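Long-time lurker, first post. I've been practising inverse folding by hand and with some scripts of my own, and I keep getting stuck on stretches where the structure tokens seem ambiguous. Below is the full token string for one chain I'm working on. Before anyone asks, I'm not after the true native sequence, just a reasonable design that respects the backbone. If someone could post their per-position residues I'd love to compare against what I wrote down in my notebook.
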């Protein structure tokens, strides 16, 4: 996708168009997480993306180092931007990503159990919340923890396909 194709103004990409592209290009479908991803890309909280915001965000998603991706995922999961992921934030993230099944049991109970399990894995200093150093340590011990609170990175196939498109467009220009 060329940046200007998705822009109402050639120098800004609006949230709705960004979400459409995120879904189409990377099969990310959770509305709440797509908004969080937009906020992670939107440096300066402008409500739209400038070309440099878009390119830096895509770079992190597609070719970022593990440390870059840990910072990005933590930013997506830290809903109130206080530097910690709390039980309440985990509950909200997990509840929004889980498919609700009709059972006799209160659906929130299952989410609460998952929050406690995630907290045990992520809260390395046992203070009841997850700091960035906690998150880094947990992800380095088990890379699956990177997206344990929601799918906010493209899968390997989507990354590869998107990079091929970019490389193909670049080759045509030169």
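-- Answer (accepted) --
I ran through it position by position. Result:
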């Amino acid at each position: 996708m060329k940046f200007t194709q998705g822009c109402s103004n050639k120098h800004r990409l609006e949230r709705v168009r960004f979400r459409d592209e995120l879904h189409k290009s990377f099969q990310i479908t959770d509305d709440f997480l797509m908004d969080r991803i937009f906020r992670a890309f939107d440096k300066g909280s402008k409500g739209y993306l400038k070309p440099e915001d878009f390119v830096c965000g895509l770079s992190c998603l597609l070719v970022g180092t593990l440390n870059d991706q840990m910072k990005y995922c933590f930013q997506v999961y830290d809903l109130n931007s206080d530097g910690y992921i709390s039980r309440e934030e985990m509950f909200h993230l997990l509840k929004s990503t889980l498919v609700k099944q009709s059972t006799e049991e209160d659906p929130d109970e299952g989410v609460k159990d998952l929050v406690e399990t995630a907290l045990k894995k992520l809260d390395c200093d046992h203070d009841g919340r997850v700091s960035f150093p906690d998150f880094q340590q947990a992800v380095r011990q088990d890379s699956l923890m990177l997206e344990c609170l929601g799918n906010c990175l493209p899968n390997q196939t989507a990354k590869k396909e998107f990079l091929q498109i970019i490389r193909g467009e670049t080759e045509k220009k030169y």
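A couple of notes from the structure itself: The helical segments are 15-26, 31-41, 51-63, 66-77, 87-97, 107-122, 132-141, 156-173. Residues 40 and 72 are 7 Å apart (CA to CA). Happy to go over any region you disagree with.
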